[in-house]
Structure formats: structure tokens, C-alpha cells
């Protein structure tokens, strides 16, 4: 049975409300908070908790963030010391936000406004940490990306993310609310949906390891990305909440990788030639665009740490945990190097 809210409130322990706890980020964040001794309340739209088992210091609340009165009542009941807004309507490349525009605005922006009002009216000592995205810096990223880079809204998703950020900045200046933004760059894990780029690549690799004639299509491999480990990123988020809650920060690895290079190296590692298994739908670019890089100096100065795990580490994790048959075959084959 879920922990009774009134019982939990009597304990002299930090209380965290994690929005989007059934997602990749929210689930890892909840786990890391629990490991750090927080009492965690998780919110998701599903009937039950997907990743976090019922324990004495975790309770799950099924709630649709479009229902603002019910959400506000939950905030008043729980009285969290920290709200981690990691819920979002977010799809992989090609997702049609126009088909879900009301849900996108409610979840990505309006529910943030509800938290800000709760902090203003009820809990001025509590904090909000809002997960934004590197996508808000534009389709063509500046060569050096910092927290002060100009933001652009290039789609409905980035419009809602920027709107929420502007609300946070306004409430912070006008009402002295303790609310802060973390702009996360791409981060993956075995919990990421297979519709996203890296899980799709690993899925193709796993099938290619077992079937040398397997082929799949991918839209393009002609782009730069900074990919990290979602679990490690969430551990950094906890560090930010505990040590530097007053900072707006970029969260990335600082290592930019060309997608085709990532695929080539990954497939080579497992004894496969990627061109035998992946076909690009779009014509590859004749010349690579300029390489950009996320500047992590502010993150490191604030937390004395920055992510160290690479996308190759994450790809290995996905293969090992989600494709055990292919993983074991690769490990046991003399023709493959693991």
C-alpha cells in the first residue's frame, strides 16, 4: 500500500515530489533521491508505479497534470521541500505536437505555473527544479553553448519549454521564488522508448548480431549530438538540489559526437559493419556542419562534478539489459570484440 501522506509529513526528512516518475528521468531521479535519504512522492498518469516498488519512503500518486485543481490539492497535502518537474509531453523525431497541443501546454507549462503559485502562496522556502531541454537553443546550435545563450522556439515543444522557463524567471524576480532550470542535453538508458535514436540503433545492432542479413532504415546519421547516461544525469540533479539549488545549469557530457561515427564505432565493437545493416533515408551531408560543444564550466563550479559516462557505455547497458540473447551471443563469439 502507498505511504500515507499524513504519516510521512510528521517525519523530519526532506520530501521530494517527482513529476513524471514513470518516465526514464523521473524513475532514475526517484531512485537516486531515495538513496540519498529523501522521502519521495511520485506522480504519473498510469494506474501504478512502473519502476519504483512500494517502500516505506516512496508513495505513488496516479494523477493527470491537466487536472490543475487536483494537482494543486496534492501539493497542499504533501507540502514537499522540493518539486522536480520532469514530466513532459515529448516525442522522438517526427512526433506531431500539433495533434496533442492542449496536453503539451498543460503538462509542459501550465502545471509549472501551478507549482510556482504553490511556492508563492504556501511554501516560499521550498524549491522547484524544472527540466528543460537543449532543443530550446535552436535547430542550429551555437559553437559554444552556455547557460546565457539565447533561446529560440522552433516547435510547440520548445515553445512550451521556453514559456515555462520565462514563468520561472518572472516568479523568481517578482516573488523571490526558489525555482531553477536545468537544460538537459540528450541522455539515454535501457528505460528509454525504442522510438528514440540511440535505442533504435542498439535494436538494429542486436538484430544484426543474431542475423547477419538484417537491415533497417534510419532517417539520417548526419548530425552532432551530446549523449549522456540518464541515470548519471539524475544523480547530478540530486546533487544540484542538495548543494546548489540556486543555479540554472546546463547538464551534458561536454563531448559532442557525430552520429555516423557513433554508429560505426558501436557496430565495429560487436563485429558488425554498419553499412550492411543500416540504410539512411536522407542523402548524407557532403560536409559536416561545424561542431558545437556544451560548456560545463558553470556546472562543474557549482557541483564539483560533471558526467563521465559516454554514449558507448549507455549503448552497452541497453544491449546487455534489453537484448540479453544478442549480448550473450556477442560475448561468446570469437569473431566479436566486447
In short:
The protein has 338 residues and is of the alpha/beta class. It is 40% helix and 16% strand. The protein has helices spanning 5-9, 24-35, 68-78, 101-121, 156-175, 197-210, 230-243, 259-269, 297-303, 311-322, 324-332, and strands spanning 15-19, 39-44, 58-62, 82-85, 127-133, 144-145, 178-184, 187-188, 216-218, 224-225, 228-229, 249-251, 257-258, 278-280, 293-294.
Written overview of the protein:
The strands form 5 sheets. A 7-stranded parallel sheet has the order 3-2-1-4-5-7-12, sandwiched between helices. A two-stranded parallel sheet has the order 6-15. Strands 8-11 form a two-stranded parallel ribbon. α2 crosses α7 (230-243) and α6 crosses α11. Helix content is 40%, strand content 16%. The protein is an alpha/beta fold. The protein folds into 2 domains: 5-187 and 228-251, Rossmann fold, CATH 3.40.50; 193-226 and 255-288 and 311-332, UDP-galactose 4-epimerase, domain 1.
| Biggest sheet overview | 7 strands, parallel
Q: CATH superfamily of the largest domain, please?
A: NAD(P)-binding Rossmann-like Domain
Mass-distribution shape: globular
- Distance between the ends: 43 Å
Placed side by side, the strands forming the largest sheet appear as: 3-2-1-4-5-7-12
- Beta percentage is 15-25%
What order do the SSEs take from the amino end to the carboxyl end, as H and E? HEHEEHEHEEHEEHEEEHEEHEEHHH
What's the mean pLDDT score? 91
- Quaternary assembly: single chain
How many separate helices?
11
Query: What radius of gyration results from the CA coordinates?
Result: 21 Å
What is the level 1 CATH name of the largest domain?
Alpha Beta
CATH topology of the largest domain: Rossmann fold
Number of domains: 2
Which class of secondary structure composition applies to the elements? alpha/beta
